[in-house]
Amino acid sequence: MTSRTFLRNFLNYGNPVVTIFSGSYCSRLYFHQTPVCKVAWQAETGFKPSKVAVVTKTTRYEFEQQRYLYAELSEEDLKQLLALKGSSYFGLLERHNIHTHNVGQIVDNLQKEGIEVRIVKRREYDEDTVRWADAIVSAGGDGTMLLVASKVFDKNKPVIAVNTDPERSEGHLCLPVRYTHTFSDALQKLRNGEFSWQWRQRIRMHLEGTGINPTPVDLHEQQLSLEQHSKAHRTTTEAQRSTTHNYTTPCLLPVRGLNEIFIGESLSSRVKYKSFKPHLTLSHHRASYYEISIDDGPWEKQKSSGLSICTGTGSKAWSYNINKLVAQAVEDVLRIGKAKTGLDIPLNQEVIESVTEAYNESLIFGPEENKVFFSVREPIVNRVFSNSRQRGFASKICVRSRCWDACMVVDGGTSFEFNDGAIATISLCNEDLLRTVNLD
Amino acid sequence: MTSRTFLRNFLNYGNPVVTIFSGSYCSRLYFHQTPVCKVAWQAETGFKPSKVAVVTKTTRYEFEQQRYLYAELSEEDLKQLLALKGSSYFGLLERHNIHTHNVGQIVDNLQKEGIEVRIVKRREYDEDTVRWADAIVSAGGDGTMLLVASKVFDKNKPVIAVNTDPERSEGHLCLPVRYTHTFSDALQKLRNGEFSWQWRQRIRMHLEGTGINPTPVDLHEQQLSLEQHSKAHRTTTEAQRSTTHNYTTPCLLPVRGLNEIFIGESLSSRVKYKSFKPHLTLSHHRASYYEISIDDGPWEKQKSSGLSICTGTGSKAWSYNINKLVAQAVEDVLRIGKAKTGLDIPLNQEVIESVTEAYNESLIFGPEENKVFFSVREPIVNRVFSNSRQRGFASKICVRSRCWDACMVVDGGTSFEFNDGAIATISLCNEDLLRTVNLD
């Protein structure tokens, strides 16, 4: 393929970007096992970027090292302390090396293609990286795919994740595991158009009301070093001081939700203590009060352990775990149904498993589908709060907060204050589509 | 009744205490509607305390006033700011006055009985109060019943709660609502033995391992003023500095769980911002990793949104909401079952509701029953984490933390660090029984 061909293909796709990010160790792997929905559009022709940023994750080894070195401990102390906690220093080091090796493979293959490569640590990932690169490549898990997507607003920039540690995480948002080891094949298929685009809907949020603050707080790196913590806090504090006020007109938030947004109380107290962790946080689980309106329907009071609103992509993530039933529950329901109806409902494992599977599958929909799925988490029913629909599909959802110390968390990574007086409008818009690819 | 009789009756019950506490506004009212289990022992004879402490709750009016006054705002500003948030100043004031009136009634009735009364604000409630009083009376909701129980370790001290604002809260741990208005009748029935004791099992926890800290952190008052916040933090910090170390032998924690204990991740970041609240806390919902052993069975890896372990009392509280099914889900299961089995399962409302009710009732057991109920919350199943039993009864549960920033929260009010390396043993012991009363 000549550089002219590259250029032509490149132009066919505006500013195509192969973004392969790597997640932090603690990325939320809430995915279950059924294969990713493959509904997508065939690429008319291949594409090949000329500038690629490779962003690498913070492995748990790096994380622990960072914490302990911050506490002025030696590598030897680290070994002993990890052993005390039942973790193996060498185990972590091995995972770290596997990740590092896979990242190396990716970089080599890109350079063999004559692509300009820039390696970026995930905590250094920013809009400039996205702007500079017409292709961003890295190897990682689902957690960072979410971080990455949160900074990509150009729907012509496909985001592709490669799982750099397949034995440790599912990586449902990543390319099939085999491409971790044969990344050159993936590049060839992309170049030859042997792939399909997977467009993913994303949630946009408008906030209005009193005491709201449209400044996002990035939680992705919260588990990193104390230095980074304090930095993050100082930064946010400044940002917030300058922006907290009353919004009488809806304010579009600067992030999009690829998986879901979660609204709920989060009363916590910060307690410094002698430890390697920057701080100890204690969460007091409380009921969340709010009012909800589905598709401009009537406002309805709700009291629950929060509210989840997900996309098709997210319907396989946290939302799935909120709503799915385990076989044990299905068996109980069928047994009670059998007793109540007197019908001879068979309660063998086969029936129970097929019902359970069908029920759980019904919770999943395609990433490109133009609708969201809401779930009232652990709804509380009493004479004050009636519980009507616990969940369902919608194209627009409005939520009025009655919470005390709540937040709206986007993809578990970005958070906004959401207290009494604030109103959020959740919707979808084709402008917000995220371009990813499917490789067989 | 002569003072001799009082004395005799008093001696019959060691050091009986009628403890009627009032909850803070934000008490967790996770209770559903079925009546409280009435299994109990008939009192052989009545009892009457001679010293009673009346502990009063912080109403939301007091709470808001405190916050706003702290920000040097006038009562007039308070009115306007509450209005902005869609809350009514006069509404809050009305609830406050109803509570205050009911507390007054209780105090009057006690004094008419010649009982020495001491009035204590809930945030002033401490072990000295419990020690001084041979009867502590207050009017309040379930939230403070939990706070109260957390400081009562003498199983001869019955705890009784009166709901001071029945229109606003369920008060399932409180006396029947009518006694709120006819407290003298309640006192008479207690005196004449026209009641039964309700013994409630409580959960005890042993902690062992590395990096654990047996110093409890009280979350009950977290929603109060900034002064109290900083005070609480300073205190705790000092306490913890002096006590964080490695426990090689199990350490019995200084609290008991009346409702439940919850174990889960709680990664949060503390962000100061211009507001009346002391701080804004953002919670990043993460999967919790841990290993669990039921009744000395094999250790099993779990990944979920936390683990709940409740008593019979708590089986109607948060645990109920974690496990209960809404009619919508039951209908879906039966519909799928109908399709899969080809049986003519009737899907009318009557059947669906009776199955739903029977299923949910099966989650509840008696407060005095000598067992706990565990629930894996939102279990995560993938090729790494198999999900076996999601829930069940047990008499002993061991949990080994694999969490990063987790805590063990007792009755939503007291919290302990519970991170990688820590092992908790959860059990019941008759020493820990809480004595409450049932009045018809």
TrEMBL record, chains A, B:
Origin: domain of life? Eukaryota
Q: Which GO terms of type biological process are on file?
A: NAD+ metabolic process; NADP+ biosynthetic process
Q: Which SUPFAM superfamilies match?
A: NAD kinase/diacylglycerol kinase-like (SSF111331)
Q: What is its EC number?
A: 2.7.1.23
Which GO terms of the molecular function aspect are on file?
A: ATP binding; NAD+ kinase activity; protein homodimerization activity
Q: Which reaction does it catalyse?
A: NAD(+) + ATP = ADP + NADP(+) + H(+)
Question: Which family does the entry's similarity section mention?
Answer: Belongs to the NAD kinase family.
Functionally, this protein is described as follows:
Mitochondrial NAD(+) kinase that phosphorylates NAD(+) to yield NADP(+). Can use both ATP or inorganic polyphosphate as the phosphoryl donor.
Question: What name does the UniProt record give this protein?
Answer: NAD kinase 2, mitochondrial
Organism whose genome encodes this protein: Electrophorus electricus (Electric eel)
Organism classification, top ranks?
A: Eukaryota, Metazoa, Chordata, Craniata, Vertebrata
This protein's gene is called: NADK2
